Amino acid sequence: xxxxxxxxxxxxxxxxxxxxxxxxxxxxxxxxxxxxxxxxxxxxxxxxxxxxxxxxxxxxxxxxxxxxxxxxxxxxxxxxxxxxxxxxxxxxxxxxxxxxxxxxxxxxxxxxxxxxxxxxxxxxxxxxxxxxxxxxxxxxxxxxxxxxxxxxxxxxxxxxxxxxxxxxxxxxxxxxxxxxxxxxxxxxxxxxxxxxxxxxxxxxxxxxxxxxxxxxxxxxxxxxxxxxxxxxxxxxxxxxxxxxxxxxxxxxxxxxxxxxxxxxxxxxxxxxxxxxxxxxxxxxxxxxxxxxxxxxxxxxxxxxxxxxxxxxxxxxxxxxxxxxxxxxxxxxxxxxxxxxxxxxxxxxxxxxxxxxxxxxxxxxxxxxxxxxxxxxxxxxxxxxxxxxxxxxxxxxxxxxxxxxxxxxxxxxxxxxxxxxxxxxxxxxxxxxxxxxxxxxxxxxxxxxxxxxxxxxxxxxxxxxxxxxxxxxxxxx
Length: 476
Prior knowledge:
Blueprint: E1 11-15, H1 20-31, E2 35-40, H2 47-53, E3 58-60, H3 65-68, E4 74-77, H4 86-93, E5 98-100, H5 101-110, E6 114-119, H6 124-137, E7 143-150, E8 155-158, E9 164-169, E10 173-175, E11 178-181, E12 190-193, H7 207-219, E13 226-230, H8 233-238, E14 245-251, E15 257-264, E16 269-274, E17 281-285, H9 290-305, H10 310-317, E18 328-333, E19 336-341, H11 346-359, E20 365-369, H12 382-389, E21 394-398, H13 418-427, E22 431-435, H14 438-448, E23 454-458, H15 466-475
Parallel strand pairs: 1-2, 1-4, 2-3, 4-5, 6-9, 6-12, 7-9, 12-13, 13-14, 14-15, 19-23, 20-21, 20-23, 21-22
Antiparallel strand pairs: 7-8, 10-11, 15-16, 16-17, 18-19
Helix pairs in contact: 6-9, 6-10, 9-10, 11-12, 12-13, 14-15
């Protein structure tokens, strides 16, 4: 039985505070006047910058004295923490009040509000930010916690007074002592599903295993709840488990909310919105890529389910200012643009490249891709990465040395081969290069760059500070 969280809550300590969810909850609690401390192995932007701005002290490295000397009221343990972590073990052995991140988030922030969860393999962060923006801009004063820095909220969270809490729901496991998917802990009353593909090969055996997690999420929905789902075959399959209403959205003709006649322009993308029982109307969003059209469409459909008039929602879309590290323009120097993006799954890589083709028509696209996650560092998606990266003109990939990877699904024996991907790209007629590290990637791209080019950096980490290297090199 869980030890109840002490009240009043004065001091919370986060182990592995640098994750986007962990850091965001830390910032939210600090904003409530609670003392917050944390520790992590390493920090990288944008969360490192956010934690510094919030003046939350972070100890680098894990040690028992971080929790034993100050004895916090609550210790929140992130899912990156292993069972032998000395700081987590000390907190458990000392009998301190412990929570996983999702349980702490629910108990301290979501409970008592209408839980609105955005889940899916791709598009969660942008769509969560879109939904929350539509609710905010139409006077609903929502709370939100998202896995990125939303420009509209000037951060990754908002502690509103309204009835809705909008949260990004991740299917990854919770913590070393609770291997259930994180999104099950948020008890959604309204659920938006953006997509469903095989990912997280370190905890899921195959696509069917991932589907089982989403089926469990749907089975937990209340009978009077609502599901808004993208019209994809995999989601059609799992939504058979839903015992509440399901509303569909998608691109082209079909059932439910649809986007047709998609046209990119200088400031974003236009499309024609079709929805049941209403006339078609034109919609403009300050985003690029068909996947972002789908994200915006899902946000419109979900906000309408929460009572936002469609006209007001469409108007609010125009005030969306994006999320850091999602097609983020870091700078343009002497006609060379540097874009930072979080894409790491092959589908996200492909869609991001296509979106930037629409955003910068006629310009050469030079791409750096870092295989960093436990899934991308395996050979599982190697062919798919070659196909996805083939949409660029020139590609640089750092060499990935085989090394032990965490895996709950069996020992990893096949590893990503940078050279094989580069060979496949060259066979497609693309210029491509394996580089030793981020510094060599920067030198390769800077040597190739010319006025008018777009340099795209894709990684779910900091890629060794590659974006900053590129900007510094261009200024020089």
